[in-house]
Amino acid sequence: MTYRIICLLGFLALFGCSRLDHLGKAPSFTPQEQSPERVAMAYSGVPTVALPERQTDQASLWSRERSSLLGDRRAMKRGDILTVVIEIDDEASISNSTSRSRSGSESLSVPQLLGIPQRIDEDLPLGATMADAVDLGSQAASGGDGQVARSEELTLRVAATITDVMPNGVLAIEGAQEVRVNFELRELLVSGFVRPEDITRQNEITYDKIASAKISYGGRGQISDMQQPRYGQQVLDMILPF
Length: 242
Known about the structure:
Distance between the termini: 28 Å
Largest sheet: 6 strands, mixed
Number of helices: 6
Number of strands: 6
Number of domains: 2
């Protein structure tokens, strides 16, 4: 019995660790040391060897360096930063209607057949007759009506870091943004894969050009906790069959 109580307390403590973080204080930011962006910047791979510049390059507006006036400053290697523009304005409406009806009727009457029905009627219970031997009728009708309406609008900008370069040249990006207001922490997460040619000259890319895009906008804190049912209630909702 004691073992079961200990297991139950450990189970509840495990689920409640996220709320203990902001018990009586504002939620903590995610440590920068644990972010994949910092790892990508700190270990960006084999350093590139700069080619010796000619004397004419030092006095020219054009050079092979990215920091030159006409240099390409778009993100292209591990550890570089680019801006992800998220502008979601979706609206959809679906409406359908279905109607079906069916009716049928069958009748069999034998009022006169060599006097046989009259002979049979003498042995039938009072009120029964063979004049209308069989009379069947059926009718069915069904109808359905459904409608779905959805409207979403979200405009955000977040800086993301190239965390890896795939063998085919596609860039893997991840970005995170955290804003804390009083005791509520709002966080924006974005990740996916982009093509280098889809990055604009302003070093930006829109969300619709991100393959396998994962965009999350939520938060944690006292307000978010109040909007969520307790863990015990969530467990009971999964277990109870009624």
